Amino acid sequence: MALQLYLDLNSQPCRSVYIFAKKNKIAFEYKAVSLAEGKQYTEEFEKVNLLKRVPALKDGDFTMAESVAILKYLAGKYKTPDHWYPANLQQRARVDEYLAWQHTTIRFHGSRLYMFKGLLPLLTGEPIPAAKMDEAVSDLQASIGSFEDKFLQDKPFIAGREVSLADLVAIVELMQPLGVGFDPFKDRPKLSSWRGRVEAAVGKQLFDEAHEKMLKSSETSSNLDVKSPAMQRVAISLKKAYM
Questions:
Q1: Torsion angle in degrees (nearest 10) through CA of 104, 24, 31, 96
Q2: Do 211 and 175 form a contact (C-beta atoms < 8 A)?
Q3: Where on the phi/psi map is residue 24: left (φ > 0), alpha (ψ -120 to 50), or beta?
Q4: Which of 84, 149, 164, 204 is deepest in the core (most CB within 10 A)?
Q5: Which residues is 5 bridged to in the sheet?
Q6: What is the C-alpha end-to-end distance of the chain, expressed in Å?
Q7: Cβ atoms 193, 124 nearer than 8 A
Q8: Per the omega criterion (within 30 degrees of 0), is the bond before 55 cis?
């Protein structure tokens, strides 16, 4: 049975898995799971991932969740070029260090701002309080500052001279706010230069392909049935996570 990847390219972790698999010519069956339609809550998807989250992987009888774990699994199984997840102990430690740090910083703060400026007010019918919005922007900017100072420094990429899983996971998160009109790269030449290097390493066509849907999300969100049970379930989940 072919490798199956359950994805929604509006999701940052899904894009990292998609880009990695495509860039490394890993053959897979794309299984679309629309988060906006609440498809992650269906009984069919629950058989693949009890956590009801994407991405998810099915490789024969083996299933797994969590994007970082999936990326490492693919790197190991398909013996992708070493620079993605280096064999060198210290270089690998740099990759793991970033992957451990980003969950509660770049990922959380970028996602929070994206939801505040996009889906959450649409689902609830209420604007985000100005103080909450200002806090979200400030927190993201602080995390980006830490990313530049601690992880990027003056290096071409996080782990050194070549792109790694850490760069891939970072770039998809930092692209997310662009989908709701907030540019995290503005007035940050170091960050912008790094973005250009990551795009070039991945390939601009693949990079743009992976982000096309998300960058148009503000145009398509108006078509959502915000009163549907699935969407109200999403709204409750988002409020609990970000408010």
A1: -20
A2: yes
A3: alpha
A4: 164
A5: 30, 57
A6: 42
A7: no
A8: yes
- Measured CA to CA, the distance from residue 205 to residue 199 in angstroms comes to 9
Kindly give the confidence (pLDDT) of every residue in the chain, 243 residues in length, as a single tens digit, with 9 standing for 90 and above: 689 999 999 999 999 999 999 999 999 999 999 988 888 989 999 999 999 999 999 999 999 999 999 999 999 999 999 999 999 999 999 999 999 999 999 999 999 999 999 888 888 888 999 999 999 999 999 999 999 999 999 999 999 999 999 999 999 999 999 999 999 999 999 999 999 999 999 999 999 999 999 998 776 666 777 778 777 887 788 888 887
Short-list 63, 128, 68, 118, CA closest to 96:
68
Tokens in use for 78? Answer: 């398909």
How remote is the C-alpha of 30 from its chain's centroid?
17
Beta bridge partners of 160: 157
Query: Which two tokens mark 86?
Result: 């280096």
Which of 23, 44, 42 shows the shortest CA–CA distance to 171? 23
What's the full length of the chain, in residues? 243
Instruction: State the amino acid at position 43 in one-letter form.
Output: E
